[in-house]
Design a protein that fits this description.
This protein is mostly beta strands. Among the domains are: 102 residues; 130 residues, no CATH class. The strands form four sheets. Strands 1, 9, 10, 11, 12, 13, 14, 15, 16, 19, 20 and 22 form a twelve-stranded mixed sheet that branches. The protein has a four-stranded antiparallel sheet with strand order 4-3-6-7, with no helix packed on it.
Length: 363
């Protein structure tokens, strides 16, 4: 039996609540050294959660387009401290980066057995439900840990680099906090991390940048395309996008309120063509995704022949939540139990991934 992973908020948590504006905007600016004020070249600048990125030119300048604004942009350079900024408009940005300083406490040799134990915990939950033969952490030396009897925390001050050959991405991740704890039951109290339970809970706060792994092999490119499509259908983002567009049945989803009051599972409280806000109408909502064995969504009321179902339960925490048209959100403040919650950041698709409009499911 698979461990049950409960995710509070969203796997891809953004630490500042932001609201989408009406159109994509260009973001531009200049990056300089904080002390010398000289322009910095080859600084990576990216929109967090996407494949959208660029590097600064010989004048330290950059331009990129964000699919949503406000957004977070990250800046990475091997010799400078990483920086993340919240962008709310298209004003020209003057950005200063500080050189990395060597922290004596961070370079002290740790007890090897303790670090190995912490890495085992991190890998178990951070890589949960990943295709582990195809997913590899390339630089776990950047990770730092904090652990007591009930709570495990991991973070890094330089980007963690993960290679996911299954989905064809390399992901650079700035982890602010990766928190793991265990509970005696769903919604219950914390128990020792050393105790066995299927109710393990984790929460991630991070900024991340996807880059395609280049391959010239046609068969491999086709397989990656198929893997991405299969990964998207039935995912949390697929569900949220279907809820936003009011196409749940068409996209293979059915809902059941718990307890069953006869009311809709969710109600739309406000919205426009860029953002909609919903609230729970029940304590729990069971969401079931239906697909055929070619991994095509099947309308629950039009099922014929063999099919598979993938259940997920959402538990309300009493908060409203927002959805953008592409199925992303900044504030999914509810617990997720089941197939939609069993995907780590190392095994996700970028926010700007869009499946083909007319895919060949036989590929």
């Amino acid at each position: 039996m698979k461990n049950l992973i409960c995710i509070i908020s969203c796997l891809l948590v953004i630490t500042t609540s932001i609201h989408a504006q009406n159109k994509q905007q260009q973001i531009s600016g200049k990056v300089v050294d904080s002390k010398t004020k000289t322009p910095l070249i080859n600084v990576e600048v990216f929109v967090s959660g996407t494949t959208i990125g660029t590097t600064t030119n010989d004048k330290g300048e950059f331009k990129l387009n964000s699919p949503v604004v406000p957004c977070h942009i990250g800046l990475l350079h091997v010799a400078y401290q990483p920086l993340v900024l919240t962008i709310s408009d298209n004003s020209f940005l003057n950005i200063e980066l500080s050189k990395k300083t060597r922290n004596i406490h961070e370079v002290q040799v740790k007890a090897k057995n303790k670090r190995r134990a912490n890495l085992r915990i991190f890998n178990k939950y951070f890589l949960y439900h990943a295709e582990k033969s195809q997913v590899k952490i390339l630089n776990d030396s950047v990770l730092r840990f904090k652990k007591d009897e009930y709570d495990f925390h991991a973070f890094c001050n330089s980007p963690l680099i993960i290679e996911n050959k299954h989905l064809g991405y390399q992901i650079k991740i700035l982890i602010k906090d990766f928190h793991v704890c265990k509970k005696d039951k769903v919604g219950g109290k914390k128990i020792s991390l050393n105790k066995f339970t299927e109710n393990a809970l984790f929460k991630l706060q991070a900024f991340y940048y996807y880059q395609d792994i280049n391959t010239r092999d046609t068969i491999e490119r086709t397989l990656i395309k198929k893997n991405r499509r299969k990964h998207y259908y039935g995912s949390l983002r697929h569900f949220l996008g279907s809820l936003y567009s009011n196409e749940l049945g068409k996209n293979g989803f059915s809902l059941q309120s718990i307890p069953n009051s006869g009311k809709d599972a969710f109600t739309l409280t406000s919205g426009n063509d860029q953002l909609k806000r919903y609230k729970f109408m029940a304590e729990k909502v069971k969401v079931t995704y239906h697909e055929d064995f070619a991994h095509r969504p099947v309308h629950p009321e039009q099922i014929q022949g063999s099919y598979a179902t993938w259940p997920t339960t959402f538990i309300s925490l009493g908060h409203e939540f927002e959805i953008r048209p592409n199925g992303t959100s900044t504030n999914l403040n509810f617990e997720i139990h089941g197939s939609m919650g069993q995907r780590s950041l190392a095994n996700t698709l970028p926010d700007n991934y869009i499946p083909e409009s007319n895919p060949d499911f036989n590929l």
